[in-house]
Amino acid sequence: MTTINERLRLDGKKIYVTGGAQGLGKSMAQGLAEAGADIAIVDIQLEKAQETAKEIAESTGRNVIAVKADVTSPEDVDKMIKTIVTKLGGLDVAFNNAGMVINTPATETSFEQWQKVINLNLNGIFLTAQAAGKYMIEHGGGSIVNTASMSAHIVNRPQPQASYNASKAGVIQLSKSLAIEWAKKGVRVNTISPGYMATDLTLNSEALKPLIKIWNDWAPMERMGKPEELQGIAVYLASDTSSFATGADFQIDGAFTAW
Fold first, then answer.
1. What is the 3-state secondary structure (H, E, C) of 191-221?
2. C-alpha gyration radius of the chain
3. Phi-psi region of 255 (alpha: psi -120 to 50; beta: other; left: phi over 0)
4. In what side-by-side order are the strands of the sheet with 93-96?
5. Which residues form a coiled coil (predicted)?
6. Residue 180 belongs to domain spanning
7. Which of 13, 27, 143, 164 is flagged as catalytic?
8. Has 82 been annotated as catalytic?
9. How far, rounded to the nearest angstrom, does the alpha carbon of residue 222 sit from its chain's CA centroid?
């Protein structure tokens, strides 16, 4: 029988992280590599993805590559999977993390803005999960982790973001549906729902500084989460330890949604 430490190791696993060049994706990729996995940093910003891949490879000694892809393009996603499988030698775990938010009142949201958010946050998740799922079903199974948000469970305030909230709720229901379809095919599908996280992009935004104080005042822990505080759940869901976990949503939000 293997020990818990052995089951949490990711040695030999091939993993990709979309939106992995910065923010939460970068932090999760770092943690996954530290646990022994080879990583593909997938991002629309190739140069930034290359910088991140180099940084993680140097700090962990793992094989880390950069792949450019528009996850809203079926052709790009298919090419992405083929590139990752060729360069890493397979695909065991998929972290579909790319996303965006536009804060506008619903009455002022243009249809183009609505489509942009839904296209990346929901269609992009479907396309990448579908492509990864097809490969995994044909090659003995795997684990898919889709990034949702606590915004799938609550309506954030004071910022208006109906399109984002709707898209993230869709991610959870989509993931549960895929988990049921693929349960007997060896493919697990789960979601992570982070709360407010202190990424560099968030902390350095002048527009968000007034909101950060409000968020922290309302948070039970009176602070935002640190990106590295998602690494534990990322490693768990990528590892063999989580072999019975599928169709679940893991809220990592410092009890923000527990009010």
1. EEEECCECCHHHHCCCCCHHHHHHHHHHCCC
2. 18
3. left
4. 64-68, 38-43, 14-18, 93-96, 142-147, 187-194, 249-252
5. none
6. 4-252
7. 164
8. no
9. 24
The reply to whether 259 falls in a domain is: no
Whole-angstrom CA distances from 67 to 87, 92, 241 are: 10, 17, 28
Residue 208 binned pLDDT confidence (cut-offs 50, 70, 90): confident
Residue 33 resides in a domain: yes
Residue 257 belongs to some domain of the structure: no
Which pTM was predicted? 0.96
40 bridge partner residues = 16, 65
Q: In the annotation, is 164 catalytic?
A: yes
Angstrom distance (rounded) from CA 197 to CA 110: 27
Residue 244 CA, distance from chain mean position: 20
Residue 149 among the catalytic residues: yes
Q: State how far the Cα of 124 lies from the Cα of 121, in Å rounded to an integer.
A: 6
Report how far residue 8's alpha carbon sits from residue 4's, in angstroms, rounded to the nearest whole number: 6
CATH number of the domain encompassing residue 142: 3.40.50.720
Domain tally for the chain?
Answer: 1
Q: What is the pLDDT of residues 78-111, one digit of tens each?
A: 999 999 999 999 999 999 999 999 999 999 999 9
Say if residues 41 and 17 touch (Cβ distance below 8 Å).
yes
pLDDT of 64-73, one tens digit each? Answer: 999 999 999 9
Catalytic residue among 27, 167, 168, 175: 168
Length of the chain: 259
The answer as to whether 258 is a domain residue is no
